[in-house]
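Changelog note: in this version the structure field was regenerated for every chain. One regenerated record is shown below for reference.
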Amino acid sequence: MSDAARPSSRARRAHRPRPPLSALEERIGHSFADRDLLIHALTHVSKATGRVGSYQRLEFLGDRVLGLAIADLLYASFPDADEGDLSRRLAGLVRRETCAAVAEAWDVGPHLVLGPGEVMGGGRRNQTILADVCESILGAVYLDAGYAQAKGLVEVAFRPAEKTGAPRGRDAKSSLQEWAMGRGLPIPVYEVVERSGPDHAPHFRIAARVEGIEPGLGEGSSKRLAEQEAARIVLAREGITGFAAETGAAEAS
């Protein structure tokens, strides 16, 4: 086949078969009795049949399930926190960036049911789509197994009981960058040390480099996840927890 006739790498990715849903169920932590609910939760409007064939209704439901589950868990985990503190923690946990990060941790992207245009446009990595699907999956779990099961998934994936002064939506890369800049250092640099695995299931090893500090090495199924892990390793190793707390307090004022 000539180069002109050979499909592009993007076209090949667009037609690559989706991995089995059982793998996604394992990462989520729930096996669906009604798997059609999960398929519905993964179906973007660009691929839906009819006005209600996409994940949007499940997203609406999942958004409310997520808010209630996190409020429930925060209320139990922080008995001495006032309403303002609980509200700030809730806002950080339900924000779009946090939901997208959870969907990435579940590696939802390869399972999304998208129209060809969305696939070619990078829809499997689109942060808005990933955040919406995180909520739609929670809505599907709620319908499939009830509130207690959905709450359990939220507790594992969102970790609302962790004691941190910073809103959860503040990711590790942002915290590390602001810490470095606050000390007059250049912004952190992220370098791909190793990329392995096939195109449909890559694995990245990335170094987070801050001037004068030993690099942190993170791994993940996407560059973003590996970079976040590398930044978290630097923050933890250098004991940069006070910065997060100060930042959270400043934002709360």
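Spot check on this record: The chain has a mean pLDDT of 83. The CA atoms of residues 173 and 231 lie 5 Å apart.
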